[in-house]
Amino acid sequence: MAKWRVMTVDDSAAILTIIATYLEGSEFEVVASERDGVMAVERFAQERPDIVLLDLIMPGQSGVETLERILAIDPDAFVVIVSSLGTEDAVHECLTTGARSFLQKPFTKGDFIDFMRDLTQVA
Amino acid sequence: MGSMFFGQYLLSKGAIDREALIDAIERQRRTNLSLVELAVRDGCIEPRVGQSILTRYRTTETGLEELCIEYGKISEEKLDELREIQRSDWVRIGAALVAGGHLSRDEVEEHLAVFQEAQREANQQLEADFRACRDAETVKTVVELAVFHLKRFTNGPVKLQTLAEDGGELADGRRRYAQMLTGDRDLHVVLDLPSQVASVVAEGFIGIPVEGDSEVAIDAVCECVNIIGGHACTRLEASGFRLRPHPPFSTTGDEPSGDSKSSIRASVMAGDHPLDVRVFV
User: Fold this and answer.
1) Contacts of A91 in chain B (CB under 8 A)
2) What counts of helices (H) and strands (E) characterise chain A?
């Protein structure tokens, strides 16, 4: 069975490493990782991943701006926000902009994999 | 006297020397096992599951006992039994010092009575200091969250000692990890950490050993500050404050000191390493 192709976007290399480690050996494959929103939009256009895991608070182009630009390329893109911020305002803004789900950091490997598997039920 | 551990108090009073304290702590480490370690020793859970529970404990807000039940499949009855073993085997620092011949039982009791009274006063002082802070609710929320997450990431004792306003300069031998929050308030959440603590925090966060001054460790500790800041925004939203975090940063300089904000400095002990949690408001 083909793996789910995942793109991760976070300015923190630690978070990118943690996510890649958590997904090793699973049914998910990280096909692209970016630490910058502008680069992430370019990579999205090239890779067209099944799922994008997108940080909200990044220097330069924010997560919400990046989300908008990805959706401008593909309105059906499946983008999930992964952020330490869990305010109602932030969640509401992301979901109304077009994010499909929201995961608050920090998370354990088990919780993360469960979350990803739940996503595949609707992706 | 600020809030502190008993061993640290005895050391500061000259009642014991550093070698005696190290010996007592090592005695404690040999005998004082966590519920997870006891469960592994007892054969109730596999070491691999125990490790997984400890990782969850470090990275979520769930209690250790709850995790033992949920992931270790330990029954409430077994947990009671393990708690009883833990209680009966547990050696306090005073008893460890007596066992090592560093203090007599009477000396420990005498010092403990003075220490406990001083701690009561120190805790009352801390509460009063929190209340006296500019923007007390914000400061208390950030400091409590920082202590909470530092405990999780270091998987060790972390104690808030004193709270005071100061100039906000970074002390020698430390690195500053900071995040600005803006909106209904304008503040900075800051951790000033020595390299040893940074490496422990980073290792607890990403799960692999790293040097405290390495790029990986700096990035990981910045992400920890991001988690403290993000959770502070979430918690303060319930009090009616709308705040938004900015990307975290690290520096060996004093910023944001000197830009007209007050710096509230919370002196904290992580194990036997001092560090500062700061809130610039």
Assistant:
1) none
2) 5, 5
